[in-house]
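Final report, Chapter 2: Outcomes

The project's central promise was a pipeline that accepts a single protein chain and returns its three-dimensional structure in a standardized token representation, suitable for archiving and comparison. That pipeline is now operational. To close this chapter, we reproduce one record exactly as it appears in the project archive, with the input sequence first and the structure output second.
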Amino acid sequence: MASLREFIRALGLFAAALSAVAAPPDGYYHSVDESSPQALASSLHSIVDDHQRFPYTATATDTWNVINAADQDPLNPDNIIDIYRNASYAKIAGGTGAYNREHTWPKSYGFPNDRVSNYPFTDVHHLFASDAGYNSARGNSPYRRCDDTCSEKVTLATNGRGGGSGQYPGNSNWARGTAGDQAWQTWAGRQGDVARAMFYMAVRYDGGYHAQTGHNEPELLLTDDYSLIAASNTGQNEAVAYMGLLSDLLLWHQADPVDESERRRNDVVYSFQGNRNPFIDNPDWAACVFASTCDTGGPGGGDLVVVLATAETFTGTGTVTGAYAATHTSDDNYQRITETESGGKPSRRTSRAEHIWSFDVPAVTGAQLAAEVAFDQSFDDGGFIFEVSVAGGDYQPAFTVEPAQSDQLYSHTFDVDEGGVVSVRVRDADRTRGARQLDALRVDALSIRYSEGGNVDTTAPAPPLGLRAQAGDGQVALAWSANAEVDLAGYSVYRSTDVGGPFAQLTAATLSQADYLDTAVSNGSTYFYVVKAEDRSANVSAPSSVVSATPEGAAGVSPLRVAAVSLEAAGKKSLKITATVSVVNALDEPVANALVMGRFSGDLTGAQLSYSDAEGVSVFQGGSRVKAPATLTFCVESVAKDDLAFLPGALDCQSVSL
């Protein structure tokens, strides 16, 4: 293993290698118009449009040359650092090797056919060097949050970042390949990189044409609508294509800020293509363009105004339980709309529902309809459609609510040209004759928001991750991973005695910390918990995953946890690997005679069992020797002693490159 002195020296070399990062040329963004989100997007497009195209593969300068320069390992100019595995690979000039070229905006979504007129196919602002296996594992999955049921794709510890496995999310990528529900969650160290690449693509390609060549270009749009993304995968070059998920990309952009490595990459691509990624040079522009949250001298930046329903209209179609006041706050107090059956012959009857809420809204640009709803009684899966009418005008579609047991967040931005009554109508989407099943929609919160400056923050926080529960004597301790949003206001905790809810809010005010102790419980009863996050603009996240706990008497509930895992290598060419695990109790005291199960992965594999000694230490010897270079990981999978509970944590894994 490298000494601390060598590690510090490596960090110094890394910083020195990045020190030559250049600023955007003087005047490059001189023509930017920040007066509105639309004006900003349009002006940025004009600046980055019409770049120099290089062929995908050629004997002359091609995308291989640009990528090898852009993704060069700052500590080894003969290597590249790939985006997903964080591995350092020797450069290749093409063909088949350890890495290949990753279209972060999958080419199958809008531009699969390479030709001289296909500019996004070869645009290196979204092409990255990627481990070939990880590129294949992602496929064309959209970028979106996964969870601990997804498949883990670990990273290597390279140049001071990456490495570790076994604990979601850690420093790993997470993948779900289920048809119709695909997801790829990029590891934490590169989430912002891929997000800003997507922002660039959506601004660079707006459906126009290249001014020098005259070639038509696609319109690339970011969305949270998975069906639109999937529909873009036609196998043909399309005029309009979608990618996402936008809300997750905005969160990744915040959680993983621009670093010097990314700025250097922007400079390198600019030196070839002649255009820059503006969201690397000016990260604040992303919130303005894609979330209408602008901190500029023009519209935006005013106080947020939240308008609640003041009246409702019962149309006689469907049944309504609860009054419109139930939609004023996100508190699991619902108004429910249920379909009723029409009259006539049974073969011609259908199920239907319709309800209208009224809001008093002044003339404003960029108002947002925000809804927290669940289509929780679904039989024909026809959906419920929300529509908006301004000052008695025709109803315009806002969004369609898809079947879901838990509350989902939907939003729609629109303009109110003349102040007055805004009507929001919900109606069923399927009135097929003979389809008589009675679907139901529940509405937890419904509002119209706008900024006095004209723009409004419409992006809800991410659902809290990593929620865990530890039962005690007459209490349940909850903890979760802190959210990364800069405008986070806090968290709310909800509890139920049934896994399916309803969940009642336990916290009267938002919590600033990512933990909570519930003492209003009875021993022997099982409780279920979820947590929601809220930002300073009153946007509320979807609930976290559900966890449960059953408080019992004092005996047998003290938790065990891993205090440390270390890996050592002995030898010169043939290395003997030893893993050491320290186990402690809730008082951080060593625990003797605990049975620990650990697993090696990477270039050394295998699971082993070992008992902790009097100092709480378990030792694991690798079943075989390894030869350098090698990369391996050791993770603790379980710890058992008597009836003590094992509490997994972030320290359960350790990785090393030799």
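Archive annotation: The first strand starts at residue 72 and ends at 73.
This record, like all others produced under the grant, will remain available to the consortium after the project formally closes.
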